[in-house]
């Protein structure tokens, strides 16, 4: 599936996205003028080296567990956790469980992958 970039509705599942994602830790699956959405599904042992983004970001943890470090403060997150990160806020996932799955929403859209 290519990244949909129109204003058409999209309905999918995490399993469908994972089947298409392959070995990449992050895959964007929707891009429209006001936001982009992606799935973060790191392999065991993944080290999150992301840098602060120029966009506001929302994370929705849909499976697994991790510690989300935001500006030096560490907070455990698990399925059902939601985090908002304003643009420029340093953050990263640590202590990532084997089955971590996070939907990331960037607004405005993040850089083209």
Helix content: under 10%
Radius of gyration: 13 Å
CATH fold-level label = Jelly Rolls
For the largest sheet, list the strands in their spatial order. 1-2-8-3-6
Q: For the residues shown, what is the average pLDDT? A: 90
The CATH homologous superfamily name equals Jelly Rolls
Class by alpha and beta content = mainly beta
Instruction: List the uncertain runs.
Output: none
Report how far the terminal alpha carbons are from each other: 14 Å
Domain Cupin type-2: 41-106
Pfam family, one: Cupin_2
Organism: Blastococcus haudaquaticus
Protein name: Cupin domain-containing protein
Task: Provide a compact summary of the structure.
This protein is mainly β and 113 residues long.
What does this structure look like?
7% of the residues lie in helices and 42% in strands. The chain is mainly β and 113 residues long. It has one domain: Jelly Rolls (Sandwich), CATH 2.60.120.10. The strands form two sheets. Strands 1-2-8-3-6 form a five-stranded antiparallel beta sheet. Strand 1 (26-32) and strand 2 form a beta hairpin. The two termini are 14 Å apart. The mean pLDDT is 90.
Q: What's the helix and strand layout?
A:
Blueprint: H1 14-21, E1 26-32, E2 35-40, E3 56-63, E4 65-70, E5 73-78, E6 82-85, E7 91-94, E8 101-107
Antiparallel strand pairs: 1-2, 2-8, 3-6, 3-8, 4-5, 4-7
Annotation keywords:
8 strands; Jelly Rolls; mainly beta; RmlC_Cupin_sf; Cupin domain-containing protein; RmlC-like_jellyroll; 113 residues; 3-stranded antiparallel beta sheet
């Amino acid at each position: 599936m290519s990244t949909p970039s129109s204003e058409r509705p999209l309905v999918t599942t995490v399993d469908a996205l994972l089947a298409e994602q392959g070995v990449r830790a992050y895959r964007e699956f929707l891009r429209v003028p006001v936001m982009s959405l992606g799935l973060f599904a790191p392999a065991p042992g993944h080290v999150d080296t992301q840098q602060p983004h120029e966009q506001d970001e929302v994370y929705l943890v849909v499976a697994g567990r991790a510690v989300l470090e935001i500006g030096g403060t560490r907070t455990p997150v698990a399925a059902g956790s939601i985090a908002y990160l304003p643009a420029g806020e340093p953050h990263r996932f640590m202590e990532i469980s084997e089955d971590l799955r996070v939907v990331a929403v960037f607004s405005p859209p993040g850089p083209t992958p």
